Predict the 3D structure of the following.
Amino acid sequence: RRRSSCGSSVWNNPSEPLMIEIVRERHVDLPPDRGWPLVEDPEKLSEWFTAAERIDVLKGSGLGRRQRLYGRWGRKRAEIDQVVTEYVPGKVLAWRHEAERLDGKPAPEFARETVFVIRLQPEGAGTRVRLESRQEPAGPVRGLMIRLFGKREVAGHMDRSLASLAARVGERRA
């Protein structure tokens, strides 16, 4: 901690990681080539990815695709504009949040950057599906809020999403 010019304490701990990472993974009984359409196609993704009620493509396809995710954050309607930042067919789909709205108004900025990644890796006759969320907090207080509240909600969505995907392909927990 150090003192700011107004006398209040400011968080300044170099050993504290700036990024907040949440990772969940699960085996599903589906080869990656058959699982990829469930990840890459926004309509199919929203059928198992519980954070999304709907995903609309705004422009483009593959790397650079712009899309809007509609869902809920707590009791509020959420809209998140995203851009696809990594696209490796059959293996990786990643996006970065560009704008977030709650109930139609700009959401408070808790993270300077949010990146979400879905990875598919062959595993036996099936696939290891890995979900990764990385957020760079917009400051120490915002980071604390993410760690105390947001992290649990994101992790819950990830767990429910993997269970939903496994159920969709007829897989029981492995």
